[in-house]
Amino acid sequence: MDGGLLTTLEQRSPTFSKGQRRIATYITEHYDKAAFMTAAKLGATVGVSESTVVRFAMELGFDGYPHLQKAMQEMIRSKLTSLQRIEVTDTRIGSEDIISSVLSQDMENLKHTMEETSREEFAQAVETIAGARRIYIIGVKSSKALAVFLSYYFNLMFDNVVHVDTTSETAIFEQMLRISERDAVIGISFPRYSKRATKALRFAADRGARVIAITDSRRSPLAQRAGQVLLARSDMVSFVDSLVAPLSLLNAVIAGVAMSRRQEVSDTFEELERLWEEYQVYEKR
């Protein structure tokens, strides 16, 4: 959990009322559960009223409890273990309809992604990718699936794409050895953030490459070295990550780059369609 909030709770503890001290103690010791509780549920858990929880959030400088809750959720995502994720999911979903709960959560993630992603930075990222001598794509752990998806389509479109093998740090640096300011690097990582991805982006930035981070927050370690940061909301589904919104954002990136190099992409796919037809790659309906 973020040290800033913990420090604030510790420093302000002497000024808290008895009820507020209960809330602070519970948040400090059970942040993984508190972050996903309603104000009423948190109040009932620690033995205070819902209004006390709301006033406590405002006492800490938040506009209301939802803002404190959101702050806690953003802070803890990178620290929850797989076991804690399962416990949180049980708290949030319980005996509810799992399909409805998960799909509703994904729709919320898409909505927030559409609202939070900067159109200006998106346009700049598309321009950077389209103009790069070489495009490096990096994704580790669950984000590797996103990197493979993006690499697949970019490789169909262009001949200057490198999907970086992230099985070891040595492999990463060897593949990026000749990277320069003429190249673009797309780093993808969501909580829990990958150290390998962070190091790779630092390596690229130190050599002058243009860095694009696709992540969930500007506080993400990937964002620190990026020229453009494209935000996609990622949330937890049991011990796995919800990658619906990040995948949708990648679809937009692919479409944007394709439109910026429309003629080249059209010529490429015209040739691909001819080859697919000649070698009967797809079943005919």
Task: Provide the residue-averaged pLDDT.
Answer: 89
CATH class of the largest domain: Alpha Beta
CATH architecture of the largest domain: 3-Layer(aba) Sandwich
Q: Report the principal-axis shape.
A: elongated
Oligomeric form of this entry?
single chain
Name the structural class.
alpha/beta
Number of domains: 2
Head-to-tail CA distance between termini = 54 Å
- Measured by DSSP, the beta-strand proportion falls in 5-15%
Spatial strand sequence of the major β-sheet:
2-1-3-4-5
- In DSSP terms (H or I, runs of 4 or more residues), the helix count works out at 14
| Largest sheet descriptor | 5 strands, parallel
Topology as H/E string? HHHHHHHHHEHEHEHEEEEHH
Question: What do we call the CATH homologous superfamily of the largest domain?
Answer: Glucose-6-phosphate isomerase like protein, domain 1
Using only C-alpha atoms, the radius of gyration works out to: 22 Å
Helix content: 55-70%
Number of strands: 7
Low-pLDDT regions: none
CATH fold topology of the largest domain: Rossmann fold
Label this structure with key terms.
285 residues, alpha/beta, Arc Repressor Mutant, subunit A, Rossmann fold, elongated
Quick recap:
The protein is an alpha/beta fold.
Any overview of this molecule?
A hairpin with a 2-residue loop joins β6 and β7 (240-241). The strands form two sheets. The protein has a five-stranded parallel β-sheet, with helices on both faces. Strands 6-7 form a two-stranded antiparallel ribbon. It is built from 14 helices and seven strands. It has two domains: 3-76, Winged helix-like DNA-binding domain superfamily/Winged helix DNA-binding domain (Arc Repressor Mutant, subunit A); 120-257, Rossmann fold. It has helices spanning 3-12, 18-29, 31-34, 39-46, 50-59, 65-76, 82-93, 98-116, 119-130, 143-157, 169-175, 195-206, 244-260, 262-278; strands spanning 135-139, 161-163, 184-188, 210-215, 228-231, 236-237, 240-241. The chain is of the alpha/beta class.
